[in-house]
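Lecture 7 notes: from sequence to structure.

We start with a single chain of 642 residues. Read the sequence below before looking at the structure.
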Amino acid sequence: MLKFLRLQEYKVMLYRLLLVYFFYTLSRFLFFIYNYSFLEIDSLFEYLRLSYHGLAFDTTAIFYLNGLFVLFSMLPLRVNTQRGYQKFLFIIYFLTNLIGMVLNFVDLIYYKYNFSRTTVSEWDVIENESNLPQMLGRFAVSYWHVFLLFILSAALWIFLYKKVKVSTEPYAKSLTAYILTSVVSFLIMATLMVGGIRGDFKYSTRPINLVDANRHTSKIQHADFVLNTPFAIIRTFNKKTFKKVSFDLQKSVVDSLVQPMKVYQKTVPNKPNIVVFITESYSREYIGAFNNPTEIKDYVGYTPFLDSLATKSLIFNNAFANGRKSIHGMSSVLAGIPSFKDAFTSSPFANQDVESLVSVLNDEGYDTSFFHGAPNGSMGFLGFSNILGFDHYYGKTEFNNDLLFDGVWGIWDDPFFQYTKEVLDTKTTPFFSTIFTVTSHEPYIVPKEYEGVFPKGNLPMHQCVGYTDFAFKQFFEAAKKESWFDNTIFIITADHTNQIYYKEQYLNPINRYAVPILIYSPNEEYIGVNTDLAQQIDIYPTILDMVGYNKPFRSWGRSLVDSSVDRMPPYVMNFNGQNYQYSKGNIICIFDGAKAIGFYDINDLKLETNLIANRTEEMDAVELACKAFLKDYFERIIDRNL
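Now the structure, written as tokens:
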């Protein structure tokens, strides 16, 4: 009877599944080693506790990826123990599991840039990259140690797999008993796998999702340690994150709290040109003018030119990005549309008429143009710029000199800035131009002629920051000689942040989004330091206010130069990979999509002391404002009312 039960086969199958758990545990350990400064796991007990809770998420991913392997291992075919069939199982097993291993290893490196586990939405970053092979090659060179660890882990896995083999001893001749016992065994295993994939066997609960990792954590970033990347990919695959929320809020309440329709009354007789720089990965941390040296021990900045420009500008040193990716920055700055769990630009609703800086200024008679030194179409910028309605797009193709290509992303910033200036010289005023920079990015290289010119600093990023600052200096020195310069307003911001050195100030859930916003007008109309909350989506209404646009328009942001009595209160909204972060007044609200799960003092940037047990009227008001924002945001996008 025992032969009918195929116990020997099932023991080997169980051993092989346990190997998967072992290598997921190894991947989690390596994830901790590579990202320990970001994860802030302070003790062995905390590490083991979080690892234990991670087993539930590992089980879901493992059972998903090994479904075929288990099925073919348990099918009553009577040839399962033969050598050829075992080779077939070997191929299925490693084909699926090594893909899962690759995904986990990607986040050994990518997490420090994304601050969340990789999901399906990361496809937004690479789907439009024409130079993907070069990028992958550069990644392999820069992070050779990760590739080596992967190869060694895979070799060890294969070795351990082959250590335990299935016996080829034939089964008893009763086919009926063989099939019946196999079917019963399979049904038991299938039941266990369904429970493992769901996270439990309770019918009343939904399957575990990314947000459930937060149930076991005291710090938001611990959820990323509990999770694994295959789970994050599986749970976000083919998911519709753009759907209306069911908050019972009257339209009058939403309109009062969100003020989605803006109108400003400023009169500007001579329409200024507008130039917006969206600077790649240019964290607020890097710019001396945006940091108080007395609050950061031994602080060093890497932007001497921008520091000098800031003394003649209006700067916002408490400003934040609305997203974590470049395309998020583009939609936030130019259209006032933030992206949260997934990019708006990759949603089914992106292809609609969008009122934006581009469309409004087109109607106002501006010549509108977008500059990006990467291969045309990179990052999805060309497609979205067409949706916005730019008159002109200038990329690597138009630059037409591959000798100045950095070999990875695009044309070096300095020559591309000079090219941009030369094109602007030919424009009829007024014009609106956006320049999205390239060089300040991994693999953190500068042109050979500038190697050793800029301070290396403490991070690979720092010399790139210095080089791009130099490119800014060259651009402004050339531009100020032109007739269009004096009647031009320049706005400098960043798409998102990057490497962090001053961890005490910037390695926290809030300041991970800290970017600069600088407004420079040669006539010195805008000068000073503003410490109010500000965000990328504020740039859109700010520009329309500065050019004297006095018609109603859709915007979730606010004008940063509006001094009227009834101006919109400052706030910031973004998404930390698991939950929404809504900051307003004295409160930071952490919102899971349905309700507030945490309230923190506005200065508690590490989110260490949750005040939710002692709710106040201000907390209730901030949560209500967050709900109102999400209600209006999703309804306008889905109803195509942008």
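The CA atoms of residues 249 and 507 lie 36 Å apart. Keep this in mind for problem set 3.
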